[in-house]
Amino acid sequence: MGALLLTEATSDLSDHFVPDVEVVTYRDVDDCVRLVGELLADPDRLAAIAAAGRRRTLADHTWAARGAELEAVLADL
Q1: I need a surface site. Which of 38, 50, 54, 59 has the fewest CB within 10 A?
Q2: Beta bridge partners of residue 22, listed in sequence order
């Protein structure tokens, strides 16, 4: 879709996306509000991160990729 993903920071997020390059993460509500303000004030940064996230999603997070992961998990059962 191309929208920027602003999501809660988790320990495994970097397994899927590069924080601050492909997604933006926050630690708490105040951090989230601050980041929203920063991103809205910098539309070029917002657009660049959104575009990078979209590219990563289309390249690595497809139904085919998820199907292959599921197949590998089921094969190990």
Answers
A1: 59
A2: none
Q: What is the separation, in whole angstroms, between the first and last Cα of the chain? A: 35
Q: How far apart are CA 56 and CA 48, in angstroms?
A: 12
Computed on alpha carbons and rounded to an integer, the radius of gyration of the chain in Å comes to 15
Residue at 75: amino acid letter: A
Asked whether the beta carbons of 5 and 36 are under 8 A apart, the reply is no
Using DSSP's 3-state secondary structure scheme, residue 74 falls into helix
Reading the block at residue 7, the tokens are: 């999501």
Dump pLDDT digits (tens) for 11-53: 999 999 999 999 999 999 999 999 999 999 999 999 999 999 9
Question: In 3D, which of 32, 25, 30 has the Cα closest to residue 8?
Answer: 25
